Amino acid sequence: MRTAAEALKLDPDCAAEDLKLALESALKKVAEADANVIKAQEQARAAVSEMEKKLADSLKAQAAAESASAQIRAAQEKAAPQLEVERATAAKEIQKLKDGLAEKEKALKAINTALNDTPESIVKKMKTLKKERQDEADSRREIEASLNTVRKEKREQDQLFTGLKESSAKLVTIYRDLHAVSVKLHEQLQPLVAKGTEIAALPDLDTDAIEAIENPGAKDKDKDKDKDDKGKKGKNGK
């Protein structure tokens, strides 16, 4: 009894009732401390579970963003040759029109010359001229059909590119928000975890992937600029 009193910091000669009350109070505090430890452990486990879920969502959003970036780059690479084809077709059409004007001038000269020809010669030349005009009309129709096809494909590519860009912008926003929440949860969880326990580090925000999605042509421009700068330095060095 004296030992118990001293352990509870009581007078060794204190009454048994005082000792009993002190013991009950001490046991109550021990029970409360155990309950608080259990509660803290449960909160830590819940926080870890929540952080793991957010981290998984963040990684999923990152993967989706990278996939969208790859789709945008693929769409751009696919659209570039079509634009070249369209420009080449337009140049070809202009040349056709120039050739058509030259043919008309030639036809006018032929008509002027034919005024002094015989009726049979005139009929023959008119048939030839009619055939040339028909061939010219057929060529124009073929060019117009080709241009319409190229324009339609370009519109479809533009619509696809716009849709991918909008979807990517939403994914980037989700990815940034999830990463910010994960960082905050990670900071809140740290003091709740027992000493010596390591918490998995969060991956850094993939700014390169975000930049590639928000400005898909930026890297290509930078590469072209670097090439130009190197070319200028090489010329100056010579």
Provide a quick synopsis of the model.
With 238 residues, the chain is mainly α. It has helices spanning 2-7, 16-114, 119-189, 207-214, 218-237.
Q: Could you walk me through the main structural features you see in this protein, from its secondary elements to its overall organization?
A:
The protein has one domain (2-231). The chain has 5 helices and no strands. The protein is 86% helix and 0% strand. It is mainly α and 238 residues long.
Provide the descriptors you would attach to this structure in a database record.
mainly alpha, 238 residues, rod-shaped
Helix amount, in percent?
over 70%
Q: The biggest beta sheet, please? A: none
Portion in strands: under 5%
Output the radius of gyration: 42 Å
Total of helices? 5
Mean pLDDT over the residues: 77
Run of helices and strands: HHHHH
Number of separate domains: 1
Q: What is the number of strand segments?
A: 0
Low-pLDDT runs of 5+ residues are: none
Distance between the termini: 101 Å
The structural class is mainly alpha
The outline comes out as: rod-shaped
Which helices and strands, and how do they pair?
Blueprint: H1 2-7, H2 16-114, H3 119-189, H4 207-214, H5 218-237
